[in-house]
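Before relying on records like the one below, remember that each one covers exactly one chain. Contacts with other chains, cofactors or solvent are not represented anywhere in the record.
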Amino acid sequence: MSESQTKPNLNQLIEDAHQGVEQQQAATAALANQRTAQSNIKDILGYLLLVAFIVVAIVQYPRINAPYAWPDVDSSPTVAEADLEAIVGVIETYRFSQGQYPTTLSQVRFPDGLAKMVEGSKLDYSPSEKGYALAWALPNWLASYTSETGKISVEPKGKGKR
């Protein structure tokens, strides 16, 4: 050290160290307050999510707890449409694997449940050069499909039935 610079006295060094400690404590306290605020926000969001879950569970409980009601085959064409779509899917799978439509439905392997329905019903399969047509006479419905249009039609059988 040169003589122009004076040595700090011990009291000044202690005072500077004390100020440094106070600044460090203030910074630590500010950081702790910030973390506490973030923690409080997370807690509040957690409680809100819990309340939302409870409300949804209460509102949806009757629906969740109720047994599934299958569509009434006699009053809704939905089941006939779904069954005919499944048959069409099996025929189309045959076409993709063999490169052509089957000449008769006996060439197609249906899954067990669908095979029983097809076996015990009046399902007419009519192949043509452009595709095929299906006509299915069910107890309450007349269902039809043509591969040219790709549309399924289900109409009530007889007048007055719906």
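Residues 78-156 form one domain.
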